[in-house]
Amino acid sequence: xxxQKRFSKQWMWISxxxxxxxxxxxxxxxxxxxxxNYMSISLRFMLQxxxxxxxxxxxxxxxxxxxxxVRVYEPAAGAFLSVLTMLILTLFTPFSFxxxxxxKVIIGGGIAFFLALTGAKIGERVAxxxxx
Length: 132
Fold this sequence. Notes:
This protein is an all-alpha fold. It has 4 helices and no strands. It has helices at 9-35, 41-66, 73-89, 102-127. α3 (73-89) packs antiparallel against α4 (102-127). The longest helix has 27 residues, at 9-35. It is globular.
């Protein structure tokens, strides 16, 4: 049984990296296998969105398994940070329909936060750590 530790910025940044890697793996490997060559653009966007959401849950689960002690808020903060980073990058895109907004940060970051938190809690339970 592990005790709750203080919030670790180091594990938040490790989580951030794990989310980026998980999204690349799911999008590049799994997405490429599922998508195939012929698919409508709407279905492609839906699949990309679902894989992105799944990456936050899986990334949180991985962090829950490998982190020392109980770490559930660090992956959630890392997930929010990865959404924020992606949305900040939209400031540099030439497309008018992809633009930065606080509403997108709050909604997208909140969803990512919740999925990573849930994944981390499940990962901690599988690792045998008590999650409060």
